[in-house]
Specification:
Strand order of the largest sheet: 4-5-6-9-8-7
Strand content: 25-35%
Distance between the termini: 46 Å
Order of helices and strands: HHHEEEHEHEEHHEHEEE
Shape: elongated
Structural class: alpha+beta
Number of strands: 10
């Protein structure tokens, strides 16, 4: 059952998305919103915390919460599937497999998936949508041990991560991400409805099980304005590492 603070967060999230509270505006005060929703300030602050973690609002001491963005951000401090992230932001996720094929792992794929070059892998090209509009194109390579389970999923599977857990008990626990920008190629332009050469945000990721066994490695290309990624660091913990391009 959805908890009250989650319901309030969803209502505020939708109000931000539809322009009721535009970027730069302030939300009503805690007392006003608590009264309007019939909840305690503690419950309301839980809802605010959810929206702040998504990058939608910010706060300063003694001031009302301010709307920072209409697009929920994905934090690299957690590992969530595309569908989980989209639904948390009040969006409707979708997906469609455009093509899949069995192949032999290249040296690069073998290194990423802890395989031997020539071992069996599964290549999948999948477009992901938000509210019916194309948002990203995934080029995913699955390790052979999970390939059959992936092939059994419907082409329009909403969440591969959740379905692999439900159907095969595969838990994706850890992820490594590399971000850069690339120009849209012919396939990118066609499937994402952008011009060829348009800038895309690329996230190259490798996901593993809790015991470190690689499940997949992927080249994900996001359409501009479809997502914002957040990296939070401090003097105690710095997850952001800068490297030279390959």
């Amino acid at each position: 059952m959805t908890r009250r603070h989650q319901q309030i967060a969803e209502e505020l999230r939708l109000a931000i998305a539809d322009g009721t509270y535009p970027v730069g505006s302030e939300l009503p005060s805690e007392s006003e919103l608590a009264l309007a929703h019939g909840v305690s300030r503690g419950t309301l602050r839980q809802a605010f915390g959810t929206l702040q973690s998504e990058g939608l609002i910010g706060s300063r001491q003694g001031a009302r919460r301010t709307v920072l963005s209409t697009t929920p951000s994905q934090s690299f401090a957690e590992l969530r599937s595309f569908a989980q992230w989209a639904r948390a932001g009040g969006r409707t996720p979708g997906g469609l497999v455009l093509g899949s094929r069995r192949a032999k792992a290249t040296e690069a794929e073998a290194a990423q998936l802890h395989l031997t070059p020539g071992d069996a892998v599964l290549h999948v090209l999948r477009v992901r949508t938000l509210d019916g509009e194309p948002a990203l194109l995934e080029r995913t390579v699955y390790a052979g041990w999970v390939a059959t389970a992936v092939e059994r999923l419907p082409d329009d599977c909403e969440s591969v991560t959740q379905s692999l857990y439900d159907e095969a008990g595969v838990v994706m626990s850890h992820g490594e991400h590399h971000l850069d920008a690339v120009a849209a190629g012919t396939t990118d332009a066609r499937e994402l409805a952008v011009r060829r050469g348009a800038p895309l945000l690329r996230v190259r990721r490798t996901t593993t099980t809790p015991d470190g066994r690689p499940v997949e490695t992927s080249d994900d290309r996001y359409k501009p304005d479809s997502v914002v990624f957040t990296v939070r660091n401090s003097v105690q913990a710095n997850p952001l590492v800068r490297t030279a391009p390959d």
